[in-house]
Design brief:
The strands form 2 sheets. This protein has a 3-stranded parallel sheet. By secondary structure, it is of the alpha/beta class. The chain has a single domain, classed as Rossmann fold (3-Layer(aba) Sandwich), CATH 3.40.50.720. It starts with 10 loop residues before the first helix and ends in a 5-residue tail after the last strand. The protein is elongated, with a radius of gyration of 17 Å. It has 4 helices and 5 strands. A hairpin with a 4-residue loop joins strand 2 and strand 3.
Length: about 150
């Protein structure tokens, strides 16, 4: 195992983190992407303060949780595709960590709900596409009460 702290919103940072793993082990067998950012938990409109929720907060949650995970997947693919198939016919595995919040959403957590729901929903089409390269991809929708 090789844990590399990485800014998932930076393609260069992710690329270097993956290269670190490859240097350590000679190849990359898989990644676990568990990017998570929860901003302010707030209503879309606060009737007491007459304030709308922050779009910056929403953007950051989507940028880290969804786009950051996609960056990690994209940067890992060339390294996984260059592997020989193993005994099971697989070149590599990608595991993403979402949340049950992405299934039904949670009030006052619009950005987090949208980002984790988006992550859950990009996995099936990616699985179909990546099977052509013998790469397995799956998502684990975690629940705080389940751990």
């Amino acid at each position: 195992m090789c844990y590399v702290k990485t800014d998932v919103t930076s393609e260069e940072d992710v690329k270097e983190g993956l290269a670190t793993g490859k240097r350590k082990f000679g190849k990359l067998n898989g990644i676990v992407s568990c990017a998570a950012f929860v901003g302010d938990v707030e209503p879309i409109y606060d009737t007491k303060t007459k304030r709308l929720s922050s779009l910056d907060n929403f953007r950051k949650e989507v940028n880290v949780n969804l786009i950051g995970t996609l960056i990690s997947i994209r940067q890992a693919l060339p390294l996984l595709i260059e592997n020989e198939k193993d005994a099971d016919g697989v070149r590599g595995v990608i595991i993403t960590i979402s949340s049950v919040v992405g299934l039904n959403g949670t009030p006052k957590m619009l950005g987090y709900s949208a980002s984790k729901g988006g992550l859950i929903n990009i996995i099936p089409p990616l699985a179909i596409e990546l099977r052509n390269y013998a790469i397995r991809i799956m998502d684990q929708a975690l629940c705080a009460r389940c751990m």
